[in-house]
Design a protein that fits this description.
It is built from 3 helices and 24 strands. By secondary structure, it is α+β, with helices and mostly antiparallel strands. One of its GO terms (cellular component) is endoplasmic reticulum.
Length: 376
């Protein structure tokens, strides 16, 4: 009859092997997590002669919307790059351009700034389309300011929670307001928009007020391409204040607002990450990244889970007459400095996990020794 001591002792339990396996798993998980954190989402999509300038995110349908330099259309682009013509409006003047887009989720509409370039007759309007029926709700011509003899350019659009839309005039340097019923007026034509010298001999020298975004505190933030300035505008009375920045945002085009209050500003070559701690009396660029100039980025949006995306619509190619391109791109962009912080937090969490594992391993070792003593 075998004795108790002849049974396999608890010390034969492969604690060392388990430790090695667990450590290997942890380091493998860290590697995978770091790679995933550094990857970004790229959406390649195809549509002949599209050359989209405006980009919006539809949170209800969970897809992107893009306009067109050449077509009177708004297209939906899925995460997989599948393109569907969502809006087609042949009743508009031929060869008009669909520029800035904004989704008014509360009223289930998409708003689009429409502009006709020379040699076409002047035409600037805001159109609203129902996202369910795809029917046009209104087409509002945008009025000229008193004494303004320049050819206006309706460029970008933003919407507030009451259904009002705000459109920038990039040549005249003023802002239109269009209410829920499509009634248009001039919200702000402040002299503060034209006090700064314009940078000449650049591709954006003609372009003044451009990207616009609404902040739910009751004001708008607008960037100016040819001076690099940012302005804060009261949405009700049009009062203007210049936002004091630590650097000019030269060539600034599209603007987007993240859920944490960070403002993203894109130009054809760069993306800035800007924040403010005093309600945008002042702002600071805390990070910036270089973008592919060949893609000529024009718009930035914030999509699902506060992820930021930039549109590479190749607009300059379209302006210069290229009619053969059919491939375009929407690219996720991340702040390198913020990503570093995420990686640090990841390592901290792994460190805590390792400490917990080592403590567990020590406790198990003591338990095994105690059990062996009792058995022997």
């Amino acid at each position: 009859m075998p004795t108790l001591s002849s049974k396999p002792p608890f010390t034969n339990y492969p604690v060392g092997a388990a430790a090695a396996t667990t450590l290997l798993f942890l380091f493998f998980a860290v590697g995978i997590s770091t790679v995933l954190a550094s990857n970004h989402h790229v959406i390649n999509f195809r549509s002949p002669n599209l050359f989209p300038e405006g980009l919006a995110w539809d949170p209800t349908a969970q897809h992107f919307l893009v306009g067109s330099l050449r077509h009177r259309t708004i297209s939906a682009v899925s995460d997989a790059g599948v393109v569907e013509t969502l809006i087609s409006d042949p009743s508009l003047p031929e060869n008009v351009t669909f520029l800035g887009l904004a989704v008014d989720s509360r009223n289930n509409r998409v708003l689009v700034a429409i502009h006709a370039t020379e040699p076409l007759p002047p035409f600037n309007a805001l159109a609203a389309y129902d996202l369910r029926s795809r029917r046009r709700l209104f087409l509002s011509p945008l009025p000229s300011a008193a004494g303004d003899d320049k050819r206006a350019t309706a460029n970008d659009v933003a919407a507030d929670f009451n259904g009002n839309a705000y459109v920038t005039n990039s040549v005249g340097n003023y802002i239109w307001k269009v209410n829920l019923n499509g009634e248009a007026s001039i919200l702000s034509n402040s002299p503060k928009f034209t006090v700064h010298p314009v940078v000449r001999d650049t591709v954006y020298s003609f372009c003044g007020l451009n990207g616009i975004v609404y902040n739910n505190k009751g004001y708008l933030l607008v960037v100016q391409s040819n001076t690099g300035k940012m302005f804060k505008i009261d949405k009700d009375d049009g009062t203007v204040r210049q936002v004091l920045l630590n650097e000019d945002l030269m060539g600034a085009d599209g603007v987007a607002l993240r859920g944490d209050g960070v403002v993203l500003v894109v130009s054809f070559s760069k993306l800035w990450f800007v924040k403010s701690n005093d309600g945008w009396a002042q702002g600071a660029v805390f990070d910036k990244i270089d973008l592919d100039e060949e893609g000529f980025p024009t718009s930035v949006v914030v999509g699902e889970r506060d992820r930021a995306y930039v549109l590479h619509g190749r607009v300059m190619e379209g302006i210069l007459g290229n009619s053969e391109r059919e491939s375009f791109m929407i690219e996720e962009v991340k702040s390198p400095k913020e990503s570093e912080g995420e990686n640090v937090w990841l390592y901290v969490m792994v460190g805590i996990g390792l400490a917990y594992f080592l403590f567990w391993r020590f406790q198990m070792k003591q338990l095994v020794k105690n059990m062996d003593k009792k058995i022997n």
